Amino acid sequence: MTQIPDVYAEVSGTIETALTLPRRAYLDDAVFDGEKAAIFRREWIVVARVEQLDHTGSFLTVDVADVPLVITRDGEGRFHALSRICRHRAMPVAAGCGTVKAFTCPYHLWRYGLDGRLLSAPAMEKSDVFDVSQLGLQRFRAEVWEGWIFVNLDENAPPLEGHFESLKPYLAADGLAGMKIVHSQSFASPWNWKVFVENFVESYHHAGPHSESLQHSNPAFGTYALDLPEGAPFMVLENPPSEGSDPFSVYAGFPTFLFAVQRGELTTAVWFQMDLIDHSTFNVTIHILMPEPAASDPELVTFMAAVLRQIHLEDMTVCDGVQAGLASPMMVPGPLSHLERGVWQFHRYLQRKMREGANKKI
Ligand code: FES
Ligand SMILES: [Fe+2]
Predict the structure, then answer these.
(1) 298-326 vs 193-200: helix axis angle to the nearest 10?
(2) 140 lies in which domain range?
(3) Are 29 and 96 in the same domain?
(4) CA torsion sign, 208 to 214 to 219 to 224?
């Protein structure tokens, strides 16, 4: 059984007594290993939007908690999450993204269908242990929610639909399922993944790095996270506007499904896709989602992309700073503001999942 360092033991039962996490939670490779085992290999992890796989044979590759996957769309419009490791001698059978009729392993040319089934394998007829029906690519669960494709490496996990059931009413009028990605920009992120999630789930910091941007449109001290029932797998952060601006809401489906919805004359969404690499590195891709016909308005898209880039650069300065500050051996946890309820909810989630993980064989 994996030994998970208990860095979440001190997470408070109330926001009033809540502290930040100890530095080891962000710096220790063993903590990240524990999080991969107890969270990323057990929870629903978002990997794509359906419009990124919009025709038969489209595929993209993604790694979830060190498991190399290929996500495919078959002729019936079904999505599959498959291991992309050949069942012969472990060669990856796909890279990047594209369109295929089938996957042919480049090593000895075993061929797999879009649903992972092994279709053919040359010169295996003399093997007594070769069984074509048993040697498909490993399959994992893939389900769609509001236009996003999620995978779950745990075959016993409850269905995705029920998992986010209580989040649905907040998004009922937004039409997220019908939106599509109109712009994407990626950023290398040399921080522990939790530094970014924590920054995402509070708007207390609008007054700091965003003093010339979001603080004018959605001031820090008017923002609040909803007081959701213990155990909710997500948080909701409302950002009321100043006069003449639009409100926006921030949503985090734990652990890393981060998006925001801006509701004005036009409803748009922004999805922050996180691809974790190691305990102090990930990539984030910021996708703008819009409905038609706005999706076809290049000026609007370019404007939004520039605004989001500027805001993200502002966030990068503080994430850089926090990651550097955590390296101090003298760093001690500090108290959270009532405006950081989302951070505390995230920590409660981590504590719960890591405890559950510690009680299971992983
Ligand atoms: S490793 Fe794939 S066919 Fe041999
Ligand atoms: Fe920010």
Answers:
(1) 120
(2) 45-156
(3) no
(4) negative
Mean pLDDT of the chain: 96
pLDDT in tens, 295-318: 889 999 999 999 999 999 999 999
Claim to verify: residue 189 and residue 214 sit in the same structural domain: yes
Proportion of the chain above pLDDT 70, given as a percent: 98
The verdict on pTM exceeding 0.90 is yes
**CB-ligand 1 contact for 88 (6 Å cutoff):** yes
* pLDDT over 60 (residue 1): no
Determine the distance separating the centroid of ligand 2 and the alpha carbon of 103, expressed in angstroms: 41
Q: Is the CB of 312 under 6 A from ligand 1?
A: no
In this structure, the number of other CB atoms found within 10 A of the CB of residue 49 comes to 22
Nearest-angstrom CA–CA distance, 236 and 227: 9
182 & 117 share domain: no
Q: Return the CATH number at 143.
A: 2.102.10.10
Are 268 and 262 in contact by the 8 Å Cβ rule? The answer is yes
Ligand 1 contact, 86 CB (< 6 A): yes
Where a domain ends, among 156, 180, 204? 156
Atom of ligand 1 nearest to the CA of 89: 1
Nearest Cα neighbor of 259 from 323, 190, 171 is: 171
- Contact in structure between 198 and 303 (CB atoms under 8 Å): no
Is 11 a residue whose pLDDT tops 80? yes
